[in-house]
Structure formats: C-alpha cells, structure tokens
UniProtKB/TrEMBL annotation:
It comes from the Eukaryota. Residues 284-318 have a biased composition (Low complexity). GO terms for biological process: carbohydrate metabolic process. One of its GO terms (cellular component) is extracellular region. SUPFAM superfamilies: Cellulose-binding domain (SSF57180). Residues 284-324 are annotated as: Disordered. Residues 1-23 form the signal peptide. SMART domains: fCBD. This is CBM1 domain-containing protein. GO terms for molecular function: cellulose binding. Residues 323-358 form the CBM1 domain. Keywords: Signal. It comes from Arthrobotrys flagrans.
Length: 358
C-alpha cells in the first residue's frame, strides 16, 4: 500500500461557504523558524501526528511526498495538467490555470519558508505539459508545453508516464523524451462533472467546472485541500482533534489554510527533513545533540510498534467484512490483493494503481 490512495472529498461541497465566514482565521502574524506552535494547537497537533503515524502504512518510509518532490528538484515543482474534459482550452485559460496553481501552492509553501531548515525562499511552480483528448482542443500556441494524447488504462488523458515522478520515484527520467527538465512531479487532473476532489502524491483531481468557475478566486478551497494531501496531510472524516474545528483539511469547515493546517504541514517537514542532508543548522551544539537523540528514538520504536498494531487491526476488519472494502477503502489497482468489491459505495477506477470505494 502506498500513498497514492485517492481521497474523495465529497464533504467539501456539503457546506455552503457562507457558513464559513465566521470561521475565517486571522492572518499569520509572525513566522517562526522553530517548532513552537501556539499553545492551543500543541495537543491537537500531537493527536494528528500520532494518528497519522498509526494509520498510514509507512508514514516515515514513504518517499514521494510533496516535500520529497521539492527537494529532489532543488526547489521547484513541475505540473502536468490532465484535461479530462470535452471543452476547448484557450491560451488565456492556460495562463489562468498556471496562475491559480502558483497562487495555491504558494499558500502552503509559505508555511515552510524560513521554518526549521527549509532551504528555499520560494518554490516556483511551472506547467510543463497538458494531456488532452484531442490536440484540436489545445487552442493557440503550444510553445512551452508538451502536449500528450496518452491515455491511462481507463482511457483517460494522462501525461506521459515516462515523464512522471509518480512512475519514476528514483528521479531517473532518461526515458522521458524531454529528459528531466520536462518531467512533471504532480498532475492537476480536471474532470468534467467530478464532484469534490481527490489528492495524493500524484497530484490533485477536481471538477473542471468547479475549477474554471473559481479559477480567479483567492482561495480555491478544494484545490488547497487536495494539495494538502499531496504533502501528506490527512482527512478528518471520522474524528476531529481536540479544540480545532475549522481548518482546510477538515473538509467543508474552512475555505482557507489556517494556522492549524500550516503547523500540520510543518510537523511533517520537521519529521522528514533528516532525510535531506540539509547540513548543519545554526544552533548550539548542546541543543542540536539533544534534539537529534530524541527524534531518532521516537520514530524508530514507538512509531513502528503503533503502525504494526494498526495494520493488524485493519486487516482483521477488512477480512471480516465479507461484503468488501469499506467506504473510502481501496478496491483495486496493480498489485492490490485485497477485496475488489465494496461493502459501501461503488468501486471507482482512479488510475492503474488505485480504485476506491466511493
Ligand atoms: C473546439 O474548437 C473547434 C475548432 O478549433 C470547434 O470546431 C469545436 O466546436 C470546439 N469545441 C467546443 C466544445 O467548443
Ligand atoms: C507491482 O509488483 C511488481 C512486481 O513485484 C513491482 O515491480 C511493481 O513495482 C509493483 N507496482 C506497484 C505499483 O507497486
């Protein structure tokens, strides 16, 4: 099991945004360079971290989170757009798509800039390609873009897998016609008639209509939520951490990234950053030694134990439900050996590696 699970977020649409006005969070007042969250967020952040490590199959071993992609590139992200739509696409629209992606990604990245050794002051986002049903949909100049008519096994436009990070997590793009410079890290997958959204290390999927009608909005909240998944953040369908009730990853509760979302993102960064050989941080020797010792001990023992327990529990649950996978559960995909039917929902194809009960 890997992180390419699809997280279907139909709940995002169930609340009108008007009801969110009261929940608009304050702007971030001061950037903090170390792990020092506001006191009211300490407990819920710990709960979230413990829950993620307990329920993800390999939380600290998985190597294709958004952080990994940024670091592998040396500080940028390339996107490819899957234009899973019957609409044409003008040059003006493409410029808006790029601006929307850049604006949205920046809202997350800004939480990492200046924090705990994150080495970049910005993370430029570029779109290197489009996958279309027909090249005639792509109006105007194609300059700067690779245009793909490749399809996935479900017949849906897909950017060339030879150029995709999801398919080449070792960073070897020798088979990509344009080489590493033309590779893409994430896909923005826009599907006609798609409600809610889905996100993972492979990118984000949202409805074409929703995206185009919100393309100039400051906060395209479903996209922001799905980008959170690309950076390892979880959903909160069945529980809520203590004392926090409005944040973008709690679908439908916030139209903006809140302080709590930002600190959840930072929590992942501080746990993952040791894999990046960032060099010596400017702190005292004493402090550094202490921190390293603590961090090494905790994930290695506690996390593994917890994860094993949870996996067992989950396997038992799955096995006993003869009716198939639960709602949101996996029900198909390459190498999937679990149930291929759903106890609740319909088994829905997402990509060659993943089908999900929705
Ligand atoms: C797309 O553009 C082509 C011409 O380039 C036109 O024939 C077709 O009707 C357009 N399709 C839509 C859905 O607008
Ligand atoms: C599926 O299994 C094959 C053979 O073990 C392996 O090479 C491949 O990477 C696996 N694919 C995925 C998506 O895990």
């Amino acid at each position: 099991m890997h992180f390419s699970r699809l997280l279907q977020d139909s709940l995002v649409l169930t609340l009108g945004l008007a009801s969110l006005a009261a929940a608009m969070p304050k702007q971030i007042v001061a950037r903090q360079s170390t792990w020092n969250p506001p006191s009211n967020l300490v407990l819920p952040l710990q709960q979230v971290w413990d829950h993620e490590v307990a329920t993800y199959s390999n939380a600290l071993g998985f190597n294709n989170y958004g952080y990994d992609q940024v670091m592998a590139n040396g500080g940028y992200l390339n996107f490819c757009v899957r234009w899973d739509s019957s609409q044409n696409l003008s040059e003006a629209q493409r410029a808006q798509v790029l601006t929307a992606l850049q604006r949205s990604m920046k809202k997350w990245i800004d939480w990492l800039v200046g924090f705990d050794g994150f080495p970049y002051s910005s993370v430029p986002v570029n779109i290197v390609g489009y996958a279309v049903k027909s090249t005639s949909q792509f109006q105007g100049s194609t300059s700067g873009y690779d245009i793909y008519t490749t399809k996935d096994s479900g017949g849906i436009p897909e950017c060339d897998p030879r150029c995709g990070r999801f398919f080449h997590q070792d960073g070897n793009y020798n088979s990509c016609p344009g080489g590493a410079a033309r590779h893409y890290d994430m896909s923005l997958w826009l599907t006609d008639g798609f409600g809610g959204g889905a996100g993972g290390d492979w990118g984000q999927r949202i409805g074409t209509e929703y995206f185009l009608s919100n393309i100039n909005s400051e906060n395209i909240h479903i996209l922001l939520h799905e980008m959170g998944h690309s950076f390892a953040l979880d959903d909160f369908y069945d529980w809520t951490p203590t004392g926090v009730s409005n944040f973008i990853m709690l679908a439908g509760s916030s139209s903006v990234i809140t302080d709590f979302d930002g600190w959840m993102l930072r929590d992942w960064w501080r746990h993952l950053k040791t894999r990046y050989n960032l060099g010596t941080p400017v702190t005292t020797t004493t402090a550094r030694t202490t921190t390293t010792a603590t961090r090494t001990t905790t994930p290695a023992t506690t996390a593994t134990a917890v994860r094993t327990t949870t996996t067992t529990t989950r396997a038992t649950t799955t096995g006993s439900s003869s009716g198939g996978s639960p709602l949101w559960g996996q029900c198909g995909g390459a190498n999937w050996t679990g149930p291929t039917t759903c106890a609740q929902g319909t088994c829905t194809y997402s990509n060659p590696y993943y089908s999900q009960c929705l």
